[in-house]
Amino acid sequence: MDKGIRDEIIAPFIKNSQELGERVLPTLKEIQKASTEAHTLWMKHIWKTAWAGTFLFTFTLFLLATLGIYKMFDNYAERKSAEKIASVERLMNYNQEAFRQLAIAQVPVKVTRTQNNGVMNPRSFALVIENADAAEMRHADGHDNGMIFFSSTSTEEMIQEIQEQIEKLSQKAKTGAK
């Protein structure tokens, strides 16, 4: 009976187990090889993703910093330009009355760059008044002032009349603007 159980039950079971082992073992080796390969590829993918993320983050940070610095310099330049424009406007308003008086006296005025031996002096200008009588330096109000003396070709009566007309026109312009 032992021999019958062995031949009929145990022997076919062992034979089927060996056949199954021969078929499954190569598949298990392929699965293990694929798992190792997948692990290697996944690690490469993780590193590529990490480097790409780091690059993207660094580039974004650099771009934002560059834009911030640009805006800062742009705002600074705009403020400086606005200050210069306001300064020029104040100076023009200050000089407007003097040039109006020169126009009334019918005295041509010209501003020119100064030169020394044919070389232009940087930031140096001269006020040229045709047919000037004299020029001198006088100290007044804590400043050294260049005084240019000249005579008008118009009579005093003409000068007074032109001044009155200008005053009337100026008053009309001020009331009309309101």
Task: Characterize the structure shown.
- The structure is a single chain.
- The protein is α+β, with helices and mostly antiparallel strands and 178 residues long.
- It has helices spanning 2-104, 156-177, and strands spanning 109-116, 119-129, 132-140, 143-150.
- The strands form 2 sheets. It has a two-stranded antiparallel sheet with strand order 1-2. A two-stranded antiparallel sheet has the order 3-4.
- Strand 3 (132-140) and strand 4 form a beta hairpin.
- The N and C termini lie far apart (131 Å).
What is this entry, summarized?
It contains 2 helices and 4 strands; from the N terminus they run H-E-E-E-E-H.
Task: List the topology elements.
Blueprint: H1 2-104, E1 109-116, E2 119-129, E3 132-140, E4 143-150, H2 156-177
Antiparallel strand pairs: 1-2, 3-4
Give the percentage of residues in beta strands. 15-25%
Structural class: alpha+beta
Radius of gyration: 49 Å
Total count of strands: 4
Strand order of the largest sheet: 1-2
* Termini Cα gap: 131 Å
Categorize the overall geometry.
Answer: rod-shaped
The average pLDDT score comes to 84
Uncertain runs are none
Largest sheet: 2 strands, antiparallel
Give the helix proportion (percent range). over 70%
- Number of distinct helices: 2
Oligomeric state of the chains in view:
single chain
Order of helices and strands: HEEEEH
